[in-house]
Every structure is written in C-alpha cells, then in structure tokens.
Amino acid sequence: MKNNEKKIDVSLGFDLGIGSVGWAIINNYNNEVLELGSRLFNEPQLALDRREKRSIRRSLRRKAYKNLQFKKLVWKYKELFGINLSSLEEVDEIYLKMSKLHSNILHLKEKALKEKITSEEMIWILHDYLQNRGFFYEVIDEESENKKNIEVTIFDTKKYKYPTLFQKEFYDKHGWYNGIESFENVKFSHKHWKEEISYLFLIQEPQYSKDKLENFKKDFFKLYDFIRNYEFGPGSINSYSPYGIYEYDSNNKLIQKYNYIWEKTMGKCSIFSDEYCAPKKSPSAELYDLLSNFNNLRHSKANDWYLTVEDKKDIINKWLEKIVSFDNDSSNKKIKMPILNYKSILKYLKDAKPEIADLLKEEDFKNNDLEITKLESLFQFLLIFKKNNANLKNLNVNNIFNFAKKLDLIFDDLVKFKDIDKRYLKVNKKFIDFFKEYFSNQEDIQTTILEIIKNSKFKTIKNHSISLKAIYLVLDDLLNTNKNLSNFKFDKSFKLYNAILENEKLLQEKGLLNSKIKSKYLDSSFLKDLVAAPAVKTSIAETIKVFNQIIKEYKNKYNISKIGIEMPRDNNSDEEKLKITTQNKLNKKRFELISKRIFEYLGKQYDINEFNLKTKQKLLLYFQQDGYDPYINQKLDLFKVINDSSYSEIDHIIPYSISYNDAITNKILVLKSTNQNKGNRIPREYLTEKQFEKLIDFCNQKFTSTKDNPFFDAKSKEAENKKRNLLHELITEDDEIEFAARNLNDTRYANKMFLEKLNNYSEINDKPFNVVTIRGKFTSLMRKLGGLSPKDRNHFSHHAIDASILAIVANNYNPRAQKLAFKDPKYLVKNHKIFDFETGEYICEFKDLNLNAIKISNIIKNSMTEVFDEKKNLTKTKSDIIDKIRYSRKLIKDYNIELFNDTIYSLREDSNGDYRKIERISVFDISPKIILDEEQKELVLMNKSHPQEFAKINKIFFEYNEILFKENNSKKITSKDILNRYTFDLFKNFKEELCKDPNKYEEEAKAFLNNEEKRALIIKNENGFSYVKKIKIFGDKIDINNVSFIKNQDNKSFKQSFNWVALLLYKDDKNKYTYLPVNAKIYHFNNNKQINFKDESIYLQKELKKQKKLNKIPLDNKIIDVFYKGTMLIDCSEIIKDKQLIYISGATNGRIEYKYCSHLEKDHDSNKIKRNLKTVNSLLTTYEKIDKSVLG
C-alpha cells in the first residue's frame, strides 16, 4: 500500500480453543470479512500425566543416586565386612551372586532377624532396605475427603513387630508379596522399617567390630533417612530443574528465584506485579470476597437499594456472635457454620423498603445463581479456638480484620508446608505470643496448634487474583463504602490508588517496571508466570503469535480499532466436576423413572437410550409439567410427543435472543402451534390476562412444592427458577443490560490477565483499540440466527467463521458501554439513558448499547451468508468466505520426550529360534481358548515351567466352561464369566478359611472380584491357597534391530516403539526419497534446545551409519531436509481445495502418516478417522514442503 493511501479501519476476532485459534479481520465500514484463518496445534498433555512421568523419572534418579552412595559406603567399610573389592562395580556382582543363591530375599530377611548371616548377605539386604524406605511423615491431604472411601491401615506393630514378618506370613498364604500394600490397604512407615533395620544390626552385631559398626550405622542411616524438602521442590543450586526454585538469570547464572516451590504456582497479583497472589481461602481473602459480594448485591424490584455500612457490620457481628457465644458445655451439639445467603440478607432489604416488603423475594436478587462467599477458613479457625476455651468475647467487626491478618500468617505456613512436623515447628515458634492473647494455659495452646496443623478442611491449593497487600488496603473501604475494587484503583481518595502509584514509582526506580516501554509487538513473556492450565497458556501464546503476525503483515494496510475474543474454557474445577457428576447421577435416575412412567401410561416398553437428546429433553419437560402445555392448559399426547417430532416443540420461556439462557429452567414443552403463536415474546406479552392468571395458578400448583415431583432438582431450585421465568413481568432495559453483561463478562483470572496485556499494548503504542470478550453461547446464537452453515466440528473452518462473528460483534458493540462488560451491573437507567449508579456518570444511551442479538445477527446474515434454497429461503456461509480461509499448523519441536513406549517387555527364544515378546495377561482377561486349546496352550509359559499348577488352572477352566455352556449355550463365555462363577463357589465351600465373616461369603466374594487390585484365581492346595493374577504367554516375534534392550537386566527385557522428534530426509541407493527418524537409536538427547538436525555430526556416528545401511542409504548421501510433526505440504495440482494442504502427523515402518489441514477425514462405514499412510517417495511425488507463516 502506498503511504498516501488511507488505512482501512478494521476489527479483529479471535476464537481461542484448546487446540486452535480462529482469527478474522473485518472491515468496520461494511462488516466485510477481509481475511480469516484457523491456526491449529496439539492439545498439551494433561498436567497429571506429566507430573506422574516426572515423578517416575525422579524416583529412578533418586534410586540410582542412593545406589551409588551405598556402593561408596560398602567400599569405605570393606574391612568391616571382610570383603575384597577392587572397584565399585564389584558391589553389583555381590547383588547378582546373592540373587542367584536366594530365590526370594524375603526368606533371608526373616532369617537375619533371628540369626547370623554372611557379610555379603547383609550388604544385599541393606541395599534392598534402601530401595524401599516407607512413608516418612504424616501429610495433610485436603482432597482426601473427595477420594474414594478406602480404609488404609497403618502397619500394626503389636501383632507382627516388623514389616518383613507381616510380608512373610502373607507370602506363605498367597505365594507373592509385591503389591501387598494395595492388596491389604496397609502402609509401612519409614519408622517401621528403621526399627526393623536397627534390630537386624543388633542381631548381627556380635560378628563385627563394635566401633566400626557404629560408624557404619551412622553413615548408613544418614543415607537411609535423607529426604528432599518438598517445599523447595526438585533440583538445587548445583543441579537445575525447571520445576524447582532455581532459575538462570540474564547472565546464565543459576540463582535462587523463589523461597518456596509454591510461589512458582501462585501467580502474581493483578494490581501489584511484584506481589504473589493471596491463597484464595485465607481468612482475609474470604472477608474481601464477602464484602465485595455485599457491595455488589442488587435486587430487581429495588434497583436503588444496597446494603448500608451498618447492615454489613450487623451481618458480620451476628455471624461472629453465633460462634463466640456458643457454650461448649451446654450440649453435645457441634457448632455449625452460620449461614450467609440471600434469604438472610432479604431481611435488610425489607427493613429498608417496608412499603414494598411483600413484593420482595429471595429469587429476585440479581445474579442469585452465584453463591455468597462462605467464611470457611475463618470458621475453622474460630471453631478450633472456641473448642479449646479461647477467650473470644471481644471479637467483633471492629477488630476482625486485625485478627484475620494473624490467621493469614498461620495459613501461609499451612500453604507452604504439608507435613505436620514442619507445620508444628513453624506455628509453635512464630505465633505463640498471638495464642497467649486468647488462651490462659499452655495445654490449650498446644491442643489448638495441633488441631490447626492437622485440619484437612483448610483449602490451601487455589489462589486469589490479587495479593494480601491489595486486600489489606481495601478491606476497610469495602466495609465503610459501597464501592468495589474498580473504584479503589482509580479514585485518588482511596488508599489503594496511592499505594499503586508508590509501587509503580518504586518498581521504576529498580528498573522492574517495563510495561510502559513501547514494543512493536505484543510480548508473551508474561505467560511464564501466568497461573493457568497449560492448554489455556498454549492457546494464548498462539493467539499472540497470530496477533503479532497480523501487525507485521498488515501494519500499512489496516488500522485496528476493535477486538472481539472468545476465550478457551479452563479444565473443569473440582467443584464443577462434582456438579457434573451429581447432575449425571440425577439425570440417570430421572430417565430410569421416565422409562417406568412411559410404560405405565402407554403399556409399551421404550429404550430411552435410543432416543435423541431432544426427545429426552421433551420427555423430562413433559413429566416436569405433569403432561400439560402450561400456556393453554391443555394435556399433551405422550405417544405423539415420543413418535411425532412435529407435534410438540421446546420453547424458550424468555426468548433466547433476549436472555441467551439455554438452561432447562428457561424451557417448557408446548404444542407446535403454541410455540409459533408465542413467537419472540415472553409469556406475559403473549397471554391474555385470564390466560396469565391460569398460568399463575398452574405454576403455584406444579412448581411451588417439588418434594413430590422427582423430575425437578430441589437443590438447584429448578422449579422456582422456572416459575420465575414463566411469570416474568415485561422485559425492562435493566433486564436487557444484565443479560448483555452476563454474555460479555469473563471473570477468569487468565483471561483478565490476557485482556490487561492487550489493553496495555494498546495504550503504550498509541493504538486505541477496544477489547470485548464474548461468551461461547452468544457466538453460537449468532451463528444460528445469522443463517450460517451448521458447525461441522470435523472441519476446522468453523474456528475462522466463529472469529468472524466475534469481530462483527466487537465492531457493532458501542465501546462506551464496554464498562458494563467488565464491571458488576451497578447502573441506573433513566429516560432510556444509562448512568453509573455510584458516580452518576453518563455511559451511553440504551439504544447505543448495541448488543441486540437480532440486529447483529442480521448484519452477520447480510455480510456472511448466501441463499442456497430460494423456495425455503435457506442460507449458508458464503463460498467466497470459505475459500478465503487460511490454515496453519504449529510445528512440534519438543525434545523433552519419552524415548520409548513406557512398557517394558521380557523376551524369550522359542523352539524355532525366534525371539518372542512375553506378555503378562490378567487371568480374568485371557482368552479361554489359550487355556483350553491343545495348540494354543503351548503359548503359555507356565505349561512348561509349572505343568502341575497349569493343569489345575486348565481343569478349573474346563469344568466351569462346561457348566456355563450347558446353562446358556448361546452366550460367548469369557474368562471373567468362568472365574466369577468359580470364585463364588470357592468362597461358599471354604468360607471359614477365606472369609472374615463366613455368613457373608457372597458379599465378600463379590467385593473380592470387584477389587481389581485384589482379584485373582485362587487355587486350593495342600498348604492352603495359591493366587494367580497374571499368566505369561509368548507374544509376537520381535525384530531385535528395532527394540532397545535393558542392559542392567542382562538384555532379557526390552522397550519397543522408539519415539521420534524429527525425520531426516535422504535419497536411497535408487535415488528415491526415504527417511531416518531422529530417536534414541541415533541421537543422544540432552538439554540443548537449539539443535540443528541437518548437521550429521551431532548424531551417534556408528548408529547413524548402521541405520543408513539398513535403509540402503549411501553413506556419502547428506540430509536433504528435516520434517517435524506439523510440517505442512501442498499439492497445487489437487482440484479439491480441502485436499491441497496436508501436515505430517506420524511416521512408522518407512511410511509417513499425514492428515489434512482443513478437516478430519473419516471412514464412511466406521465413522473413525482415516489413517493416511504413504512412503515418503510416493508422498513427495505429488506434494512439496511449504513454509507458511502462523496465518497460513
């Protein structure tokens, strides 16, 4: 573009997903879609999976370290043991020698607790103890209440004295003992094992020099007792770990950046960037949230009402009084947490508005679906104080903030330290004077401290969005005014405003405030400290890349004035997961009951699982409404509801285009004609006065008391909310603003931080664009009302289309009204104008709010759709917009990968001289044919190694297979069927030996079979019972050139499936393209992230030559190119546009797997994603590599 040409004003749209970013640029003048695309990437691995694998790696490193230190210890004391050693490696030979002499170390350990053993046996046993040290201390697990109620028993020393004796008895009974902890739900502590070792030393002491043995014991226990301080995380000043408290500074020097590992996950305060976020459940943070709730309370019938300072003080004082005044000696009742809810607050509203008290109802509080903050941590502290005779009589609202500050410091130690011993040392040392203010004797203080540090109800994991420093500055103002954080940040009369200025000045002096420095592009470095799910951080990072590329490519062409964003959803919180689980259980019960009712009404059995979702919802609504169309008070025909889709329809009570509410509480089942007549109106507008009076009667009968109606969820107030929607008075401007704000306001921490960075960039670089966040359900509504093609999730164009919608919404939303999207809805509407309720500031005219769904959807329809069926007036997304869509794929250059598949296999040479993989299969999952068939059972190793035991298994399978076949010869019989039946019979016949309570043998047999940790094939023998859990069989033949042998297991086991990070493109001896995967065969992986894979000198030369020979690549041939997962290729001659662009998704057995960039190709018959595989030579005859920008 020439410099004298005027830039076009545009709006951007970004649709952030978990594995995608849709982007679009639209012309502000006519809403034309100018550019759009979909940026795609792989969803990050779950944090849980990554943590588990890190934990395994660290465990292996720690064992290797302890093993080395123990070897050095044996070397140091070789004279004590009377052994000749010339190298440390000879200690391994001792282990090997002992393992050949003793088939089971358990027998030797038992012997060592009774009599003298040799020095070499002693060394082997001590090495074994060092590998299994037990749990070290009691850890508070605040999530334990949500886990399965499995009773775990700490090892009982009264009965067995030492763990080995318990294990030996178990082994004698079952024939195995690995996994005993999970089988018996028992835990051995470090203390238990240490006592056993000390006793072992006592028994063996007479044969050694006493002084030297004492020195050895000290050195051994120093090694045995060593543990890392968990609060400092992994790594040290000498050994870097990306997950520890040490980081490299700008000079590449390793320094301590954090005091505790928890600081790394706490995130920084959104107000004071040098402060950490407060723990979400610290007492002061709870008080902050509660007072914010109070100041934001509004009622739809009294919009000018708010809680006064006296009201707030009275509520808090009464809450405290219920705890403080409780008499510990008066009854056996426990102190319950006082309830703070909308019902308790309604009293204050009625007192303030006596003239309309009868009209004021709890359900008419705005945003009443949001719970008022519970002071859970404060209650737990007060409960413990009160139980232990603390003097709290002077505690009230005037001093609660100072009291809470002290509790915050204690809570901080609960956050930092999880083990009880450390918690006790910290709290007892630092806060003893504080406790003395409230307790008269030392015993009560100690009891209080112990109960605090052991309390699992303190929730220490989640973080607030602001720091305790910010909270302390605003608590008084929250109590004594009716304003909120937004006011305090920007109003000079408040402490927070001045503190922010002082902090910024201080940070500038230290050179730490760089947010005001102009930058050409949006900086993504803030993501490093952002506390958010990896998927969200990845999505934001890719969006920043796209945004910066748009700036780069179009800086001379477009002027960005508005941005519309839809953010990705975080993974469900524990609370949300619980709600989902509870709802699923409720739905299951509902639909089971619906099936019964349908049978009762129609005399016909229907399988409700075969109904589509819409029919299921219709049936639920039908029974909620007792079968009536409530608008016309007419009974609906259940048979037609099920079988005739055109007979009835689901109506949104308050139209979706107004409320954007798709919840079940805003839906009702009506006749199709009723729905058509009602149109885009609420019931009050649609019905006559008499009809509305009948609707009121209907609601009072059906939706008031729902105890007898199992189709409603009483806890979530489904019936009450549905009744409120049905009887809603005319929609006011206040209602419409509230509906709009709900669809724009996004309060998630990560999203706020991203928006703040965008706004900072806009301000600093003099690019005054406005950013609006839009919720997904509103985007979905616009797609539907705008007449765009239905979303096909198998085609990635939908990300770009949604981004175009977001850009159009942003363009047609008045920026002056934007504050309604980011502030709580405290506004006043007068004469169709919107004012800030607190300041009286004029915001905009109501008509300028411009978030009218119909208006925006019409704009979308005009600019983005075309008619494809004139008779039916059906529209679809314009073809020229679809053709404009650009696709790009993120390259996967992750060098921190698993080198192989996790599974370790053993191998044996079969009778034909072939190497075969040995597979261990659960006896419940194995095919009966392998046990029963004469040819197949030759695959079973036990058939040759333990033929008598296998004969017993074969006999059981044969007998019970016959029994089950006679009972039901049409059913396919599995091993699980055979063993379930056999186990029940065994428990019946040997109930005295197998059962704790012989009278409940059926229950105990069932529990045994349902416990996957315990269940096994139990075989009766002369000495008792033997247990078989898994059977080894010969598996597939293996190519020894394509596996990695485990050297320290004497090459008797291996790992399969080498994982690769890149593909090296070569020409073979026939001048055809081929590739070598970069994996652990040819490359030694390290921490280097700047790898030039095209340089052959970086590889293991011997192995590289070997692989070249195996793949018939001349040794002189050099690497032509390097492909990664995500590398894009194009076939310009392909007629079908969707098949022009592909990307590499995998590689196996000399072939490359690829997928299309624009869509997922599925098999028509199975509906599974098709695997496209070609040799690299075949692929490159039609496709060529293409380097695309992040825009595509």
Provide the domain count. 6
What's the architecture of the largest domain in CATH terms?
Answer: 2-Layer Sandwich
Give the helix proportion (percent range): 40-55%
Globular, elongated, flat, extended or rod-shaped: what is the shape?
globular
Distance between the termini: 21 Å
Structural class: alpha+beta
Largest sheet: 6 strands, mixed
**E-strand count:** 34
Question: Rg, please?
Answer: 36 Å
- Spans of at least 5 consecutive residues whose pLDDT stays below 50 are 136-154, 570-576, 817-825
Instruction: Name the average pLDDT.
Output: 79
Task: Quote the CATH topology of the largest domain.
Answer: Nucleotidyltransferase, domain 5
Total count of helical runs of at least 4 residues: 46
CATH homologous superfamily classification of the largest domain: Ribonuclease H-like superfamily/Ribonuclease H
What CATH first level of the largest domain would be assigned? Alpha Beta
Strand order of the largest sheet: 13-8-1-2-3-19
Strand content: 5-15%
Compact summary:
The protein is α+β, with helices and mostly antiparallel strands.
Task: Please characterize this protein's 3D structure.
It is a single chain. This protein is α+β, with helices and mostly antiparallel strands. The chain has 6 domains: 8-45 and 532-572 and 745-889, 2-Layer Sandwich (Nucleotidyltransferase, domain 5); 48-226, no CATH class; 274-482, no CATH class; 583-717, no CATH class; 924-1028, no CATH class; 1048-1185, no CATH class. The protein is 43% helix and 14% strand. It contains 46 helices and 34 strands. It has a 6-stranded mixed β-sheet with strand order 13-8-1-2-3-19. Strands 24-21-20-26-25 form a 5-stranded antiparallel β-sheet, with no helix packed on it. A hairpin with a 4-residue loop joins strand 17 (865-869) and strand 18 (874-877). Helix 4 (105-112) packs across helix 7 (163-174) and helix 42 runs antiparallel to helix 44. The two termini are 21 Å apart. 28% of the residues are buried. Mean pLDDT is 79; it is low at 136-154, 570-576 and 817-825.
